[in-house]
Structures are given as structure tokens and as C-alpha cells.
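Second attempt. The first submission of HIT family protein had a stray character pasted in from the spreadsheet, which I only caught after the job came back as garbage. Lesson logged: always re-copy from the clean sequence file. Corrected sequence (134 aa) follows.
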Amino acid sequence: MSNDLFCEIIAGERSAYVVSSDEVAVSFLDARPVFKGHVLVVPRVHVETLADLADVGPFFERVQAMARAVETGLEAGGTFVAMNNRVSQSVAHLHVHVVPRNKKDGLRGFFWPRTKYDSAEEAESYRDVIAKAL
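This time the job returned cleanly.
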């Protein structure tokens, strides 16, 4: 593993609200969510971009499952699934954003306002609802 924030979370060296973890990917709540329940899905192997990921299929199966879980668990109208490659990539480790969406939620274009969880308990409750929906 490389020495980045996401590798530290994967290695258990940094805390995060982990929703799911297996041999392919680790999913956890974004610390600065667009909307509460915003999950990041990262490959367990350190790669910087999508072009660097050798086995795309299993990783995107996890992304697909997380999109379903976020929508179902949070009773969201849908999800916004996105990734950056290098430009605007805040951590140089491939990651996919799975953001719960509802009509008239205020998200427009690529302007991503950020929010915060009110407490650790609130973050844990979002993590638990999404994990249960998996």
C-alpha cells in the first residue's frame, strides 16, 4: 500500500465509518459529505486512476451494490455516482463517490456543497442503515 489517507483507512491505521470491506474494496462515509450518507468506494489495492485498475469488473460490482444500498437504505430517490481522475482528485487513490439524491435537493451541476455529521452517533446511524441494506 501507498502512504495516502485511503490506504491508511484500508490498513486500519486511520478511523473511518466503514460501511463495507472485502478483498476487493473498502467503502466508508465521506468525512465531508455532499449529503449525509455519501459513501466513498475505494479499491483495496492502491491505484491512482481508473486506467490503473487492472480488474475493473469486481470493483464496479461493489460500486453498483453500494449505489443500491444507499438508495434503499436511505430511501433516497436515486444516487449520483462519480469519480475524478487526477484533476480534482483530493486523494491520489481511486475512489468513487456514491451520493444519495432526492428531487429538489439543491445539487446542481458540478458544484458540490459539503456538510457535516452532527455527531459520531449520527454518522454511525447512516453507516449502519446503508450496511444493513447491503
